[in-house]
Design goal:
Layout lengths: L8 E5 L4 H12 L3 E5 L13 H12 L4 E4 L6 H15 L4 E3 L15 H31 L6 E6 L2 H5 L5 H21 L4 E8 L4 H6 L1 H4 L15 H8 L10 E5 L2 E5 L16 H14 L11
Parallel strand pairs: 1-2, 1-4, 2-3, 4-5, 5-6, 6-7
Antiparallel strand pairs: 7-8
Length: 302
């Protein structure tokens, strides 16, 4: 195997199925040595099975690549540390972290429970933080020791996080937080030779098949736009040394389409130059809304 990832070591979380599996396979195909992390839980985060991650490792090895399975919980601080050490101790280095692991607990907001909320936040947001934080500390040490670092963090947001999704308040909030985390990581870690970017993929996974069954159905012929393998090439390039000048960006990716998304920024401003009175605010706000572009619709709204 050889390609743009030759000599690099990558961790992919949630890599036993769907998009994560496609990332791991393509990274290996392009020459990376890959740590395939997955606890093997059900879609809602329950249970556990080491078999799916091991199967991806065997698939990589059968194709001539190098990989190792890891079953640590990315949302556990010590577990995330073990995962990062598994790459460093097993392959001698770490170059790329692809944070992909997630769970789903869809519920309309008025029916949502705190346990469901916490479970989604823990895997998505805390999981992204824990793995990224351990990796960043190691890269900082290497940089301060005088080594040339080409570290890459690739986070997984979602269209739901960029514009909201009906019935997914926890998931949307977690994914929006991941996009913001990516911006901060990019701003802080560049001094150590580390970039941070995020993707917002649309592809066929256990999550999307459960919610968008008709949209995700594979065509009988022609290009399968929802094949999760379509997302992997962008992730591979972002993980390569050649992407060193790209950081703090969020890319929506689906099929053959890549969209660079831009975050919150001022749309219209009014300045009175003095304190407003409450009875003046209504007219001022309506004037701002009239000047600004219409907001993106929340997924699933009318």
């Amino acid at each position: 195997m050889g390609g743009i990832m030759e000599g690099r070591v990558a961790i992919v979380t949630g890599a036993a199925r769907g998009i994560g599996r496609a990332h791991a396979l393509e990274l290996a195909r392009q020459g990376a040595r890959v740590v395939v992390n997955d606890v093997g839980v059900a879609l809602d985060g329950q249970g556990g099975d080491a078999g799916p991650a091991a199967a991806v490792v065997e698939e990589i090895r059968a194709a001539g690549g190098e990989a190792a399975a890891n079953g640590d919980d990315v949302s556990d601080w010590e577990g995330a540390g073990r995962l990062v050490r598994a790459a460093i101790e097993g392959f001698g280095r770490l170059d790329v972290v692809v944070n992909n692991a997630g769970v789903l607990r869809d519920r309309m907001f008025v029916s949502a429970g705190v346990d469901e909320w916490d479970a989604v936040m823990r895997v998505h947001l805390r999981g992204h933080f824990c793995v990224g934080r351990h990796a960043a500390a190691w890269w900082r040490e290497r940089s301060k020791a005088g080594e040339a670092v080409e570290g890459r963090i690739i986070n997984t947001s979602s269209g739901a996080g960029l514009q909201g999704s009906v019935g997914q308040s926890a998931y949307s909030t977690a994914k929006a937080g991941i996009a913001a985390l990516t911006l901060v990581q990019a701003a802080e870690l560049g001094a150590y030779g580390v970039t941070a970017n995020a993707i917002a993929p649309a592809a066929r996974t256990r999550m999307t098949e459960a919610t968008f069954a008709e949209m995700m159905r594979a065509p009988q012929e022609g290009f399968d736009a929802m094949d999760p393998a379509n997302v992997a090439p962008l992730v591979v390039w972002l993980g390569s040394a050649g992407s060193r000048d790209v950081t703090g960006r969020v890319f929506e990716v689906s099929g053959g389409q890549i969209t660079l998304s831009d975050g919150w920024r001022p749309a219209a401003t009014i300045d009175k130059g003095a304190r407003w009175s409450p009875d003046e605010i209504g007219e001022a706000v309506r004037g701002l809304i009239a000047q600004a572009p219409a907001p993106m619709k929340v997924y699933g709204s009318r």
